[in-house]
């Protein structure tokens, strides 16, 4: 089994946002898994935080023969746990096993999803939500987003916490003994990148998008569109070569 854990780049967000058909068959998770002849689960969601990615690495029943492809994201994104009895009727609850089956839902609804993992309910909080807050229909999402950016959006703190999350995930995967690769898909800024310099981490001075587009590390995240269908093919080829 191959597990893909990432954010909107791993999910193929532009396929949903701009109604491009055949998302699941066109993105690199599917293409790479076909090359390797393996079953896979793409558990990536738009806006995924590093807290969520680390939690899933520790939650999933990953075996020694499995492969994990993990794409870290922006440090200022967080995940919050939600008591089940505070869920509202219009909260969009999705079991983690069905995360890759959201194509029939609107992009604004996907931004508000509550993920159910076992008996845990979680929500991602991230900067894009503030720009779209006037379109958010869930009172719980609005409240959580407003509180986070008022009280808990200190980036140096989240930069430091990311090192802890990173080391926890690496330790867990090395303890299992499975094959894994890590990267950032887009130009995520870290205060210090040297701790990323491990054999399983790809492009620690760059990112996957820059490698796909042949621009080294001179890419501006603000100008960075999501992968095109052709670029997903290139990404799959790059990851395939590193796995070999």
What does this structure look like?
- The protein has 244 residues and is of the alpha/beta class.
- α5 (50-59) packs parallel to α9 (155-176).
- β6 and β7 form a beta hairpin.
- It has 11 helices and 8 strands.
- The chain has helices at residues 8-11, 13-17, 23-26, 28-36, 50-59, 107-110, 127-131, 139-151, 155-176, 208-213, 229-243, and strands at residues 2-5, 40-42, 67-72, 78-81, 92-95, 113-117, 120-125, 179-184.
- It has a 4-stranded parallel beta sheet, with helices on both faces. A 4-stranded mixed beta sheet has the order 4-7-6-5, with helices on both faces.
- Mean pLDDT is 89; it is low at 216-223.
- The two termini are 16 Å apart.
């Amino acid at each position: 089994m191959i597990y893909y854990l990432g954010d909107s780049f791993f999910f193929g967000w532009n396929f949903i946002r701009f109604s491009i058909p055949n998302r699941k068959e066109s993105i690199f998770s599917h293409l790479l898994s076909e090359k390797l002849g393996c079953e896979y689960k793409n558990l990536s969601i738009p806006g995924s935080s590093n807290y969520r990615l680390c939690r899933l690495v520790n939650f999933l029943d990953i075996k020694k023969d499995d492969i994990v492809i993990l794409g870290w994201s922006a440090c200022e994104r967080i995940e919050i746990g939600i008591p089940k009895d505070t869920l509202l009727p219009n909260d969009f609850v999705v079991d983690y096993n069905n995360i890759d089956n959201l194509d029939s839902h609107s992009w604004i609804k996907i931004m508000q999803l509550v993920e159910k993992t076992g008996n845990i309910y979680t929500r991602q909080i991230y900067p894009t939500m503030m720009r779209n807050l006037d379109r958010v229909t869930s009172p719980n999402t609005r409240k959580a987003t407003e509180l986070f950016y008022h009280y808990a959006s200190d980036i140096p703190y989240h930069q430091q916490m990311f090192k802890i999350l990173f080391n926890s995930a690496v330790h867990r995967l090395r303890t299992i003994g499975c094959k894994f690769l890590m990267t950032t898909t887009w130009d995520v800024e870290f205060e210090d990148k040297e701790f990323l310099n491990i054999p399983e981490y790809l492009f620690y001075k760059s990112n996957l998008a820059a490698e796909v587009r042949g621009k080294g590390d001179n890419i501006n995240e603000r100008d960075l569109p999501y992968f095109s269908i052709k670029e997903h093919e290139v990404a799959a080829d790059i990851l395939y070569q590193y796995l070999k």
